[in-house]
Amino acid sequence: MLNPLTEIYRDQWLLAVHKPAGLLVHRSPIDKHETEFALQYARALNGGEHVYPVHRLDRPTSGVLLFARDSETARLVGQAMMAGEVSKTYLAMVRGWAPESGVIDHPLREEPEDRRRKNEPQPVREALTHFRRLATTEIPVAIERYPTSRYSLMELQPKTGRKHQLRRHMKHISHPIIGDANHGRGRHNRYFAERFGEGRLMLAATHLSFQHPETGQPVTLYAPPEESFVRVLGVFGEIPAQWQFLLEDH
């Protein structure tokens, strides 16, 4: 069986991979019938030995996914995550021309894993996202009430780790992520799915930076967006040169 994960970093304590869009990290109430998970494929890359996921990526999100190769390393990285000492950077394509930069400080109600509990009272947690606009485009297609349609390529950095934080925050500022079935705009999602022959969430985790839990050295993991993501970015024409490196393999 072909392993869909691409290894991007390995040492005695850590294993990092690129997860494609559409793959669950581990078993979840979201889809009880799913039989393939990033966790099992990472275990295969680790010679069949157990690995410990230290964070999560939503099923439709692609990008850098980090595993610990032992429980103590998992504990230390988990502590760093909770303390806000791990930096995450994402690329996203959103509807409209977003502001050049800013901070979204908007608390979010927790979303339970089990959808049967969605009507139960849930706590509201603080949530903070920094953003920067990298490029804009306007295409001559009337998707809503205007004769043209505008989009932005964004760099997003969540400073907290709430479920679906980036998707919910971009909706909150009226610039939903393209391909987001739950928080996006259906007409735009359908347009891109039809134009490119497949629909996908235009959200990719490209960078993960932290202090190594064992050596203390700074580590920055990078994975360029997968082909299906870059193909949709063709609507931008030429990405400004200063941001082009974000799309290239290093």
How is this structure best summarized?
The chain contains 6 helices and 12 strands.
Overview of this protein structure:
The longest helix is centred in the N-terminal third of the chain and has 12 residues, at 71-82. The model has no long low-confidence stretch (mean pLDDT 90). The chain has 250 residues and is α+β, with helices and mostly antiparallel strands. Strands 1, 2, 3, 4, 5, 6, 9, 10, 11 and 12 form a ten-stranded mixed β-sheet that branches. The chain has a two-stranded antiparallel ribbon with strand order 7-8. The chain has one domain (6-247): Pseudouridine synthase (2-Layer Sandwich). The protein starts with 5 loop residues before the first strand and ends in a 6-residue tail after the last helix. It has six helices and twelve strands.
